[in-house]
Write a structure and sequence with these properties.
disordered C terminus, alpha/beta, 2 domains, single chain, four-stranded antiparallel β-sheet, Rossmann fold, binds adenosine-5'-diphosphate, globular, binds magnesium ion, six-stranded mixed β-sheet, disordered N terminus, 10 strands
Length: 357
């Protein structure tokens, strides 16, 4: 993949003003087939029930973050990612200007903010899919600000895209197997020796099958990705990202356009990954989801980090409410598990759900 393959490709060069959270637009979810028809292919239950109460991982994250002040740029006890003075402009618009940001290892850290706040651009920058005007950042203590997306992925930091990247004319299995080569790199030297790559291929296939099982996509194994629903493609993207056993996974709107029946199971997968020790950075619009799943929340507005904290800190932060939701709205209670259709998209996501394969 190259930089111009990343998600903001369809953007106009005109800056987009942040939109209020109330400007809801329909998404693919509205026109998607019912879950029983497509999400589970009529063969498997679509949703994995999420356990009630706080999981091991959530407890661990809360304990690790105890005493950390809810302030923009605050230091974390065990930061896996540290960014300094990262800036990126498009034309005259400063899309990102992050002075200092640390992400605590083993947490679900959410990046929130209005449309156009710079979340995806920040993702693109730190994952090597775009280049900043200035700034440095490190992953696991290694400076990766000059590293390619490929090398960054090899170091254990992978991302998914706001636009899904499934290759429609490959099968589900092939798409997942690609994660091993796409993100890790083909072993070019070994390529001429068929017996080497043959054994590697079967190893990769076994891993891919295990991930399909994990994400409940086994029944889609030999189907073309082109027939999948939006939600299934999001799962496919997560499975593909997991092929490299990442230390950290960055999910850009994994819930956008996903059928509500599959949202709970996606959330369950994300929590499970965190419980296993993976660090998750999540961009998500749905405040119910954010408040229920995040260990830590970072709020972007106009490219800057305007607030950080636990869900409770953020919910009561006047700056956040004003910048993100407008003065008249209040944020949901932390820990509240959404009971209704959890996806309440805002802004331009409806236009970003087309697949570019
Ligand atoms: P978010 O993901 O928070 O919605 P983005 O990072 O996509 O925000 O966008 C931040 C700002 O940068 C917006 O003003 C957007 O219009 C602008 N922008 C992002 N990508 C591009 C691009 N490739 N070309 C021009 N402007 C862009
Ligand atoms: Mg975005």
């Amino acid at each position: 993949m190259s930089a111009d393959n990343s998600q903001p490709e369809s953007r106009a060069t005109e800056p987009q003003p942040p939109e209020a959270a109330t400007t809801e637009q329909p998404t693919e979810a509205a026109t998607e087939p019912r879950p029983t028809e497509v999400e589970n292919g009529g063969q498997e239950p679509a949703a994995t029930p999420r356990p009630k109460g706080r999981s091991v991982g959530a407890e661990r994250a809360a304990a690790a973050l105890e005493g950390v002040a809810a302030e923009p740029g605050v230091a974390k006890p065990d930061a896996i990612l540290v960014a300094d003075d990262v800036s990126r402009s498009f034309g005259g618009v400063r899309a990102v200007r992050v002075e200092h940001l640390e992400v605590q290892r083993g947490t679900i850290t959410a990046l929130i903010g209005p449309n156009g706040a710079g979340k995806s651009t920040f993702f693109n920058l730190i994952s090597g899919f775009d280049h900043p005007d200035s700034g440095t950042w490190s992953f696991e203590g290694k400076d990766i600000s000059k590293a390619s997306a490929f090398r960054i992925a090899r170091l254990g930091m992978v991302r998914t895209f706001q636009l899904t990247k499934a290759l429609m004319r490959l099968t589900t299995l092939e798409n997942v197997m690609l994660g091993a080569t796409e993100q890790r790199g083909e072993r070019i030297i070994a390529a001429p020796f068929r017996w080497i790559w043959k054994s590697q291929e079967s190893e990769v296939e076994a891993r891919a099958d295990a991930l399909l099982e994990r994400f409940r996509l086994t029944h889609m194994r030999d189907e073309f990705a082109g027939i999948m629903s939006g939600g299934q493609r999001k799962l496919l993207e997560m499975a593909r990202a997991m092929m490299v056993n990442p230390e950290m996974i960055m999910l850009d709107e994994p819930m956008a356009g996903v059928n509500p029946a599959l949202t709970q199971s996606l959330l369950g997968h994300i929590e499970q990954l965190r419980d296993e020790g993976t660090t998750i950075i999540l961009v998500e619009h749905d405040m119910d989801v954010i408040m229920s799943i995040s260990d830590w929340i970072v709020v972007f507005a106009q490219g800057e980090v305007i607030a950080e904290g636990r869900p409770n800190d953020i919910r009561s932060n006047a700056k956040v409410i004003e910048a993100y939701l407008g003065k008249s709205r209040s944020l949901p209670v932390a820990g509240h598990k959404p009971v209704k259709a959890p996806h309440q998209p805002v802004g331009d996501d409806a236009t970003t759900q087309e697949d570019h394969s």
